[in-house]
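Got a spare moment? Tell me how you read both lines of this record:
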Amino acid sequence: MAATEFNKPPPLPPYPEVIIAAVDALREPNGSNKTSISKYIESKYGELPAGHSQLLSHHLNRMKESGELVFWKNNYTIPDPNAPPRRGRGRPPKPKEPVPAPAAPAPARPRGRPPKDPSVPKPVKPKVSTGSGRPRGRPRKMAKPTGGLGGLTEATVSAAGTRRPRGRPPKVKAPLTEVSVEN
């Protein structure tokens, strides 16, 4: 049993320390990518936990967000304390100017449309005439007469002809004829 204890690699320290040590030991000029960091950790510590790739990704992202590592062109580097911060792509942001505080706040206005001034007289609109003397638009409905045919007598109805009912006329059914079958 004593022989196997000496062949065991050292236990894995916390991931952020291991990642910093790997990036520092690799000393690549443009930084180290995730694969090279993972291979270095595997060579130094041997057996890795089952979720190593997820743990490595999580800690690299967390260290990138906190500023412990700089991510540039798919490589991770330890930031130089004297170097200016690297900018991403695109237009640089405008410098923020301090907004001067207003001296006195304006009085609060009520919500909605302000009421009309009652002292101002209402302008009178001139009526536009159409020229024909009749009012514009659809004419009003006439009241229905209450006395039977509405003033029409039989003489006026027969003179005008029979009135057709409103709507589509009913379909005329042809009379059925019997067909005899002779033997």
